[in-house]
Write a structure and sequence with these properties.
It contains nine helices and eleven strands. By secondary structure, it is α/β, with parallel strands linked by helices. It folds into two domains: about 120 residues, Response regulator (Rossmann fold); about 100 residues, Winged helix-like DNA-binding domain superfamily/Winged helix DNA-binding domain (Arc Repressor Mutant, subunit A, Orthogonal Bundle). It has a five-stranded parallel β-sheet, with helices on both faces. A hairpin with a 3-residue loop joins strand 10 and strand 11. It is elongated and about 55 Å long. The two termini are about 20 Å apart.
Length: about 220
């Protein structure tokens, strides 16, 4: 049973998350403040942490930084702030993902599962490689055996996503991966390519939404 630590001062919100996580057979420990959290993590080694950004006694970013000094446990920051800089700083400090308030508890559970799969390295033999077949020689990718009609940029974009499912890519990282000649490209160009790729994936597999928009940061690829 995977152990989730929730650091959240809103008890009603924490209780909802605990109920949903328990239903999915996660064991949960809840702290209403940051006091004592670092010592608890050292002694108990949870599988993942849901860490509120705004706690009554400590800044969540500071707590994240403190934990990162001794642990690589996956951390998902929970925040009501929509400032892009705060988001990027959080990721730079070692957070693995963000969840924004208000949120769906089901999405939080999905994010927990996705980050855990990524951190445990289960993707290589996971569902995503059963669905996709990448051929570098022909610059082609098949989804469930059917070849996708991709441009070269879309091929590089989708290959990048497939190789790092669950990871959140900002637009600069995407640009570095899909434009090999170092050309200057506007952020909205990335959004256009992602939109086109998302449409082609949705057409080929209507039951899945593979590409997830992460507000203020960029995109991630989900099973």
């Amino acid at each position: 049973m995977k152990h989730v630590l929730i650091v959240e001062d809103e008890k009603k919100l924490a209780d909802i998350l605990i109920a949903y996580l328990n239903k999915e057979e996660f064991r949960v420990t809840h702290y209403e403040s940051g006091s004592g959290v670092s010592d608890w993590v050292k002694n108990n080694q949870p599988n993942i942490i849901l860490l509120d950004l705004m706690l009554p006694d400590v800044n969540g970013k500071d707590l994240c930084k403190e934990i990162r000094q001794f642990s690589t446990v996956p951390i998902i920051m929970v925040t009501a702030m929509i400032d892009e800089i705060d988001r990027l700083i959080g990721l730079e400090l070692g957070a693995d993902d963000y969840v924004c308030k208000p949120f769906s508890p089901k999405e939080v559970v999905a994010r927990v599962k996705a980050v855990l799969r990524r951190s445990e390295g289960d993707f290589n033999q996971g569902e995503i490689y059963d669905a996709f077949e990448v051929n570098d020689e022909t610059y082609s990718i098949k989804l469930h055996g059917d070849r996708l009609d991709l441009t070269p940029v879309e091929f590089r974009l989708l290959k990048m996503f497939i190789q790092s499912p669950g990871r959140v890519f900002n637009r600069d990282q995407i640009l570095d991966n899909i434009f090999e000649d170092g050309r200057i490209v506007l952020d909205r160009t990335v959004d256009t390519h992602v939109k086109n790729l998302r449409h082609k994936l949705k057409t080929a597999s209507p039951e899945h939404d593979y590409v997830r928009s992460v507000y203020g940061i960029g995109y991630s690829f989900e099973i």
